[in-house]
């Protein structure tokens, strides 16, 4: 059993998650991959074809869509919200730029449970529009799901296509991702890993987006809503480790993954988290230029361009409840072990009971 397999099997024993899947590798594919545990605590074992709620790992995938539109000239990084969304003209967000939204420096607050008071898509989007800014744009990194909801609307307006069609056309199709979708169909829901026993919905959530604001939006948002499989995520990881191969031109990709918040407290690229010097979810070994993203459900994707290594971790740490922060130490330990994994013949480890 590999170090990663042991580490994640132990995470299940500590009841951090009922199941976990992982893949660590490079441009040529995985060096070590596998899965351990069950889809829910009383459910069937993982089989490697399981469907996971990516949560905020949706954000960099939406970001890849935005950068692809920038590359095609449909959108500019310094274009403003008001330039694409007429409802925002004249308000406090009219002059915010695409770049500020991508770098979480727009001043739009995040983590606001708007779903509680705004139960329809129209009402929730209006509530996002009216949220008062909590920082001067460009002065503070403030993680904002609401900012990415706005970004998704801008991408749709710029391209004249729904966000889910853009993700399919600009990210999934080029990489051959077959199971990376918003709103999984019945077949994919049958393979889905359980998330929370949700107090708001009054039931266990399986194959339906966990993020409540995304639920009200109909399951599709720039901030959350994508589901995926281990195979798809490792294809994405390999493409990123290869410098964005198949997705963006090298110069566009370099711009996206470079730090854009130097001088501010947190290191951010465009739609990616950078590696903060203290407390990074990527642990201590991934390099200073590494980038990635985490998801509230217990997912993450991290890439170190210096070593051309990716690390994918998929867990259901919100099952059966979101309380508990064991994932924080587990994820850091996973990344530290992934970063020093020796480059062996591909194939790795498949499945652990």
From TrEMBL:
Residues 5-323 form the Beta-lactamase-related domain. InterPro entries: Beta-lactam-related, Beta-lactam/transpept-like, Diverse_Enzym_Activities. SUPFAM superfamilies: beta-lactamase/transpeptidase-like. It comes from the Bacteria. Gene3D superfamilies: DD-peptidase/beta-lactamase superfamily. The keyword Protein biosynthesis does not apply. This is Esterase. It comes from Streptomyces coelicolor (strain ATCC BAA-471 / A3(2) / M145). Signal peptide: none annotated. Keywords: Hydrolase. GO terms for molecular function: serine-type D-Ala-D-Ala carboxypeptidase activity. Pfam families: Beta-lactamase.
């Amino acid at each position: 059993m590999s170090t990663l397999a042991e580490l994640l099997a132990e995470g299940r024993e500590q009841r951090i998650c009922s199941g976990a899947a992982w893949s660590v590798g490079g441009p040529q594919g995985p060096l070590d991959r596998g899965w351990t545990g069950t889809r829910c605590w009383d459910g069937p074992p993982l089989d490697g074809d399981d469907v996971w709620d990516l949560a905020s790992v949706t954000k960099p995938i939406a970001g890849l869509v935005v950068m692809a539109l920038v590359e095609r000239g449909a959108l500019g990084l310094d274009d403003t919200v008001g330039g694409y969304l007429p409802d925002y003209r004249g308000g406090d967000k009219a002059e915010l730029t695409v770049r500020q939204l991508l770098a979480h420096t727009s001043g739009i607050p995040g983590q606001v449970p708007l779903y509680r008071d705004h139960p329809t898509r129209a009402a929730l989007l209006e509530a996002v529009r009216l949220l008062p800014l909590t920082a001067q744009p460009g002065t503070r990194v403030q993680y904002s799901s609401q900012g990415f909801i706005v970004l998704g609307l801008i991408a749709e307006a710029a391209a004249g296509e729904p966000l889910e069609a853009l993700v399919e056309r600009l990210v999934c199709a080029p990489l051959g991702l077959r199971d990376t979708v918003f709103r999984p169909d019945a077949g994919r829901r049958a393979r889905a890993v359980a998330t929370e026993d949700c107090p708001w919905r009054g039931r266990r959530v399986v194959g339906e987006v966990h993020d409540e604001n995304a639920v009200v939006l109909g399951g599709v948002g720039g901030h959350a809503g994508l589901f995926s499989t281990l195979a798809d995520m490792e294809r994405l990881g390999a493409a990123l480790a290869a410098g964005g191969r198949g997705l963006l031109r090298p110069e566009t990709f370099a711009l996206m993954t470079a730090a854009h918040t130097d001088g501010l407290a947190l290191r951010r690229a465009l739609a990616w988290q950078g590696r903060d010097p203290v407390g990074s979810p990527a642990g201590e070994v991934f390099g200073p230029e590494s980038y990635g993203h985490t998801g509230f459900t217990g997912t993450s994707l991290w890439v170190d361009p210096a070593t051309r290594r990716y690390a994918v971790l998929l867990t259901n740490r919100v099952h059966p409840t979101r309380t508990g922060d064991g994932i924080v130490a587990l994820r850091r330990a996973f990344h530290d072990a992934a970063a020093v994994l020796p480059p062996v013949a591909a194939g790795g480890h498949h499945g652990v009971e």
